[in-house]
Fold this sequence. Notes:
It is a single chain. This protein has 82 residues and is α+β, with helices and mostly antiparallel strands. It has a domain at 27-79. It is 38% helix and 15% strand. It has helices at 13-22, 31-39, 43-46, 72-79; strands spanning 29-30, 54-58, 64-68. The two termini are 25 Å apart.
Amino acid sequence: xxxxxxxxxxxxxxxxxxxxxxYNPDKLYKKSxxxxxxKKAPRQYKKYISLLDDYECYDGEGNKHECVKVPQFIxxxxxxxx
Length: 82
C-alpha cells in the first residue's frame, strides 16, 4: 500500500532528531488504540484510518489482537509531538 501525504508540518532540528531516534516504522500498535485516538483527531488524520494495514499480533499474555503500523506523521500525533 502506498501513502501519499500532502501535509506540511514545521518542526525544529532538535525535534527532527528526537523523532528519528524514537520512531520505528516496523513497530506494531494495537489497532483499537490507534483508531480511538484518530477518531478524535483533526480531519486530515481521520482519513488515514481506513488506509492502515492490519496485522495479527499477540500481547504478552498470548491474547490475539489486530495491530497496525503507523506512518511517522501519525506517530507524531499519537505521541503529542505535533
